[in-house]
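Lab manual, section 2.4: Encoding a predicted structure.

Procedure: take the sequence of the chain (208 residues), apply the prediction step described in section 2.3, and record the output as structure tokens. A sample record is shown.
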Amino acid sequence: MNTVINPRKIPQQKRSIERYQKIVDTAIHLLGEVGYDDLTTDLIAEKSGISVGSIYQFFPNKESIIYSHAENSYLIMHDLFFEKVTKELKKTKKFTPEFVDFTLFAFEQTLNEVKGYRLIHSILYTNEALLHLDFESNERFAKTLAEKVILVMFPKVNKKRAFYISLMIVESVDSVIKIVHRTKKPSEKKQVLAELKTLLLVYFSTFQ
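Recorded output:
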């Protein structure tokens, strides 16, 4: 794919930063309203009150605007989640089934806290660059999970295995959360999450 996704310039002054952010915020809001296909720079300009020419000073196209938001969202999500996990680990470093409950709840809570994340996740396959960001995010999560959780709770596990254990966990949770978001009935969502917990507990039992 040859679509340019990097911003043309990163704002430095306060006024430019505010304009840049307004463009991004408006684009994400419209993405939820009209969908990816009907989102255009003309529409973003109309709704934001910022001219198309000014938008093009920062972004070459709508893909670039979405990518900019997605890149930031993945970093925020990572930091918010591991902030919660780090606080929980200060209480105990012993693995328990309750810790699995906590991490799943903390992850779902974090997804809700990151503005526009679910929208970005719903359009990953529209752009290879977005997919690559998602892959990078999972690997970032796995590295931190290995360092801050697996190696702490399971000191007998070596670093290399800790990373691959973490990668399996991250990819599994990511896939199952997609199922949860596709599921309409709360009772069915609860059942899917219960099965995920069972899956994780069985996996954890293999290296305790």
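Check your result against the sample. Residues 77 and 113 are 8 Å apart (CA to CA).
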